[in-house]
Every structure is written in structure tokens, then in C-alpha cells.
Write a structure and sequence with these properties.
Layout lengths: L1 H8 L3 H18 L5 H16 L5 H22 L4 H18 L13
Helix pairs in contact: 1-2, 2-3, 3-4, 3-5, 4-5
């Protein structure tokens, strides 16, 4: 998890996403879906999605959706007033702001692949 954070800090977003995509399923399998470390990894992944300087509208939308779901899970597991929950909620506010930013609206969301 620290490695992924370091990659994000170095603006190596694709590498950070790749590492987290590999680590999250392992953490879920070994520690469980609701373990604090698993929650933090999912939080980190959503943050990398929307902080990526090349993030598309779809990336931002995915980050918001992940953080909304993660907020509910973290509140259920840790309680509404846990510091991690507060951090996730704060990240959700930032991700929603990034989603609303006009410069990010250039790419339409398409359901066709």
C-alpha cells in the first residue's frame, strides 16, 4: 500500500493503479472485504483514479462510485465517526468536485464498448 502511495506521489498513476488492481483482490481474499487494510487500499485506488492527470470523465465517475460504495461499507464496519470514514468522505467530496470540473467534461460517457 505504501508503494502504491509512493507511485501516486510520483505521478506514476498507471503503475499505482496496476499495483492496486493486483493487491486489492489478494487483501480481500486474505483479510476480508471489510478489513481496515482492504478498505484503505480501495480508498487509495479511487484516489489514484481521480488524481491521475490524464483521468477521463469515466475514470472520475468510477472514482466517485467506488468512494460512495466504500463510504457505506466503512461506516457499517467502523462507525460513522471513525477517522478512516472521515478521510473517505473527504476524498469523495474532492472526487465529486473533480467530476463537476468543466475541463473534465470533454469526453462523453458511453455505454457502448
Amino acid at each position: 500500500m505504501n508503494y502504491a502511495s509512493s507511485l501516486e506521489d510520483s505521478e506514476r498513476f498507471e503503475e499505482a493503479k496496476s499495483v492496486l488492481r493486483e493487491m486489492i483482490p489478494v487483501a480481500q481474499r486474505v483479510l476480508g472485504e471489510s478489513h481496515e487494510i482492504t478498505l484503505r487500499m480501495r480508498w487509495n485506488y479511487a484516489a489514484v483514479l481521480y488524481n491521475d492527470t490524464g483521468a477521463t470523465f469515466r475514470d472520475l465517475l468510477e472514482a466517485v462510485r467506488r468512494l460512495e460504495k466504500l463510504t457505506l461499507t466503512a461506516q457499517r464496519v467502523l462507525g460513522r465517526f471513525h477517522p478512516i470514514v472521515g478521510g473517505i468522505v473527504g476524498e469523495l467530496v474532492l472526487a465529486r468536485a473533480a467530476l463537476r470540473a468543466p475541463r473534465r467534461r470533454r469526453e462523453p460517457v458511453s455505454t457502448a464498448n
